[in-house]
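Handout, section 4.2: multi-component inputs.
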Amino acid sequence: MDSCVQPGLLPVHDAIARIIAAVEPITATEVVPLLDGLDRVLAENVIAPINVPGADNSAMDGYAIRQQDCGGELILIGESFAGHAFAGDVCAGQTVRIMTGGLIPAGADTVVMQENVTRFGDNIRINKLPYTGENIRRAGEDIALQSLVLSKGHLLTALDIGLLASLGIHQLQVFQRIKIALLTTGDELLAPGDTYQSGKIYDSNRPLLHALLKRLPVEVKDFGIVPDNPEVLRDVFLSAREYADLVISTGGVSVGDADYTKEILSELGEINFWKIAMKPGKPFAFGLLGNSLAEKKTRATKCWFCGLPGNPVSTAVTYHQLVVPAVRYLAGENSVEPIVIKAIAPKPLKKQPGRMDFQRGIFSVVDGVNSVSSAGLQSSGVLSGMGKANCYIRLEAGRDSVAAGESVDVILFDRFIR
Ligand code: AMP
Ligand code: MG
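Output:
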């Protein structure tokens, strides 16, 4: 633990560890068509049912030969095109015209590319000697029969979909989507589309989170804007937990007079922690919202709760750092650590010791050197600054300001925050 963390605040890594230790990954699965597997979590190991490629074939347009023959002239005896193999054997002094993907005919051991051949009528002469086996893609070279292709707990990408298709796989067993209830709190909030009123602000957190959650294997039910009224909030929490595996709310999690979230969480369930040594995002409530009484939930009856701070940048950063790992773990994914790179900060960055800082930065490579600068205003209410950023500059809790020329930790924004 970082000894320079402000007393009473939980270090960020401990907060993530406590979330992961508390929640249990989903076990319920379903079978989906291959294309619907995108962004879902595999619930089974995928073992290759065939070799890919299935047989030795040509990597080039050219001529299939016996390498030992290639000194003299060869006579053309047929052709092998992709999908149309040559049925006979290639014997001494013979060759077969072959196209990329065409199967290597029996007897041949090499493909000479057509650019290295002079052809006259039905004869060819080879101008550049190939080595034995040149331009042949071997059976199983891409994926060997019975090998492990993808593991249970893997979040499927578009490239995986292509890979699975190459094995002839057309459906997959994946974990069911996590059910998420989303709500924002605050008497000051207007929904986009409402007529603007002075003294009010538009609710940006709910659309932001809704959009970000589309990247994750979840189903979202929107519980709307909830006023700063403990009775109403309690009622919404109660219906949200009947639906959800995880309730995500924003606002009202601090110590203000209109901040009821924690109080109701501890009344209905159990607070695990609510103060993190993190900037932005010190108030962040995590806990159990209690057990759902509903029969309709076929899986775990526990409903977890993440109460994010109301400022939009705090919402975005705590969502990314804490909620995304929680959801990915709940959704059955194997643990994924962020990739941290080093970059030079050419200009100073302000920081006070006490909390781990996630400043929004712009990363670039200047003359071959990783470089990062502030993306502008770092106030937790300024979402426009975060929109220009492409990374976090992550500064350890204990440290203070960064001098010009110092090396800092950078975490590039991934698809879960874009
Ligand atoms: P709170 O965490 O409720 O104290 O809110 C902190 C700040 O974030 C206040 O200035 C709120 O007006 C603002 N805020 C809270 N919720 C939202 C929201 N959904 N969209 C935009 N700003 C919000
Ligand atoms: Mg509020």
